Amino acid sequence: MLFRCLTSLAVCAMLDVPQAAVAQASGAYPSRPITLVVPYPPGGAADQFARSLGHALGERLGQSVVVENRPGANGNIGSAYVARRQAADGYTLLLGSASTLTINPNLYADIGYDPVKDLQPITLTHQMPNVLVVSSKTPYKRVADVVRAAKANPGHIAFGSAGYGNTMHLAGVLFQRQAGIKLVHVPYKGGAPALMDVLAGTIPMMFNNLPALVPLKDSDKVRLLAVADTKRSPVLPKVPTFAEEGLPGVVSVVWNGILVRRGTPQAIVDRLNWEMGSILKSPAFRQPLEAQGYEVLSSTPGEFEALIKKDLANMHKLTKEAGMKIN
């Protein structure tokens, strides 16, 4: 199923190594501030999670962790910056996602980096389902209303996304395929500006990450029609799944994780994995984020790398079947 990260893989044991031994093996690291690159604009769900994680990591490491947004080309610009232009020393981290690590390599002729050869996984951090949100200025109150209108006006109703090939876009592609409808895709440079236009009624709808929509659950400007997951979200208990709305094949759950440039010393990789794993397992860190709609995860570097390779193959099949390619 699209972008689904199996819980049995994602929620897993950290390295069974004493903390003191990991810290000693990594020497004086870190001796200066660390940069966490988010390859998307500020304000989105991924950016918000990164800022929470960066703050907690800085406290554990005793050095500031500065979040730096480098958006563009559906996340390729920021990802290539870390993968090819920064030293393999653990001082530049990357927030990677299903989009930048498994979808983009299958869409673009050249993304500027190889997600397997150039990047070293540290840990999975979280996942979140996409949700169909419509402007309250539209007449759509159920998924069936959208489907009915789209069938009556094929190729005339628009939906926004964070960019061509983004998981929000592919969720829309999957929705169209399962419902037998044709919509018009309007790509934006990030999910936040697309959502602003849905709120304003400039575009009728979009798929967006659940945490970006939780603050709007009681808004009179939008309606949340369905969650693209196999189960309802505990933070949106009144919003049905697509299966409940008659479209069981619409499942779009997006995973994210932290990586560094390949070649970073193993001791630093182990240190970062240990420290982040401790944060991600902490109830004090998890609970506020889970209340916002994030499903907090953790993993070993090897498990994260196995997921990337597996989903690279899955996305190759999906994008080829959909005829999607960017030169």
From TrEMBL:
<dbReference type="InterPro" id="IPR005064">
    <property type="entry name" value="BUG"/>
</dbReference>
<feature type="signal peptide">
    <location>
        <begin position="1"/>
        <end position="23"/>
    </location>
</feature>
<dbReference type="InterPro" id="IPR042100">
    <property type="entry name" value="Bug_dom1"/>
</dbReference>
<dbReference type="Pfam" id="PF03401">
    <property type="entry name" value="TctC"/>
</dbReference>
<protein>
    <submittedName>
        <fullName>MFS transporter</fullName>
    </submittedName>
</protein>
<keyword id="KW-0732">Signal</keyword>
<comment type="similarity">
    <text>Belongs to the UPF0065 (bug) family.</text>
</comment>
